[in-house]
Amino acid sequence: MNAPLIRRPFDVEALRAQFPILAREANGRALVYLDNAASAQKPDAVIEAMAAQMRGAYANVHRGLHTLANETTEAFEAARSKVARFINAPTPESIVFTKGGTQAINIVAAGLDIKPGDEIVLSVMEHHSNIVPWHFLRERKGAVLRWLDIDDDGGIDLGALDALIGPRTKLVAITHMSNVLGTKTPAAEIARVAHAKGAKVLFDGCQAAVHDRVDVQAIDADFYVFTGHKLYGPTGIGVLYGKRDVLAAMAPFEGGGEMIDVVERERVTYNEPPHRFEAGTPPIIEAIGLGAAIDWLTSQDRAAIATHEAALRDRAMAALRELNWVKLHGAAPEKGAIVAFSVVGAHPHDVAQILDRQGVAIRAGHHCAQPLMERLGVTATARASFACYNRLAEVDALIEALHKARKLLS
Ligand SMILES: Cc1ncc(COP(=O)(O)O)c(C=O)c1O
User: Fold this and answer.
1) Cβ of 183 below 6 Å from ligand 1
2) What pLDDT does 381 receive?
3) Fewer CB near the terminus (10 Å): N or C of the chain?
4) Which of 103, 105, 126, 127 has most ligand 1 atoms within 8 Å of its beta carbon, as the pocket-test mutant?
């Protein structure tokens, strides 16, 4: 007989203890780190895995015939398999290691066959990483960008998306979770609408992959992109998932070692994906660190983490709604633990600086989402973004710090 599954209550303190940096102070105050959408802190498991690899088995990958090269290659390719399992990719060959989410999107933009007049559909709440590569195609290849608006809560309308996609639409490139409004987009439905008209779909999962289980096959993504450093992993590593036939039809992004098949004086042929898109020495230790971050995250109770993060979001939104001198941005029914707001009459940078003096780290600015700022009618906002290790009491610290900021700024 199987032992009954015992669900332990979510223990945020036990989780925090695994993140050494959270014990430090900022400006003489206990650190309250609420800038997780920009980058998350790292657990010991990640720090140790990277150090252990460098101490114990380090060499370049794929090229060597010696023990260290083989061991490092094995660890690097094992990380690729972990990434594939993490997003339920059908095969590790669908996983391209990149230096971040930004590079992953640039690889797609550079690799697609775009003719003048071909269209890319994107939403107004995209991060610049999912805008500027498409502007390159507009400038360099005559592509046309078509913009999907959001409603006042930050939601999107599938009917409006459907109406935007035409016979020239090559790609719908859209966030899976907004880094400003927290809006989660209905990925499977978006893919269905795009595919019905013959367009491919790219999801920017840099935020969503951290908080939600992603199944690229269930949502039928042609491309799915995320980045390591927001997922409790290191910087310098990101992921481009692509369907194998879609990747195989794409031109390479950069030229160099490892991405070729044959190089002659007058001819070059290219390697199969994923290696076609991994020119030069890849971010080896970073990929292994990302694998460790995935191991760490998937060993946690992700459902309990999701409930905890929703509680953080709800507590923050409820408290901010009480303040008639604060305006909240983004209240879509499906929303992650990212809360953008403005303090009426104060510049978000001033607010963030005063909060920092109280140990509270938030982000202020345009969040690399200027078209969204224009849509919201602001030039910048403040943003508190939560991670699994944030305490509910840290929301209270945020609100208390905001009261002080308001006093100083009014
Ligand atoms: C939604 C979204 N997309 C893309 C990126 C870019 O990721 P990276 O800076 O790791 O390349 C970010 C980072 O802020 C993001 O939040």
Assistant:
1) no
2) 98
3) N
4) 127
Q: Is 98 in the pocket of ligand 1 (CB under 6 A)?
A: no
Residue 218 and residue 281 in one domain: yes
d(C-alpha 157, C-alpha 172), whole Å: 14
Per the structure, the count of domains in the chain is 2
First to last CA, the chain: 66
Q: Write the pLDDT tens digit of every residue in 199-258.
A: 999 999 999 999 999 999 999 999 999 999 999 999 999 999 999 999 999 999 999 999
Q: Would 142 be classed as within a structural domain?
A: yes
The pTM for the full model equals: 0.97
Q: Which of 251, 276, 298 is the last residue of a domain?
A: 298
DSSP letter string over 83-107? HHHHTT-S-GGGEEEESSHHHHHHH
Q: Based on the domain organization, do 269 and 310 belong to the same domain?
A: no
In terms of domains, do 345 and 233 share one? Answer: no
CB of residue 330 inside a 6 A radius of ligand 1: no
Same domain, 203 and 311: no
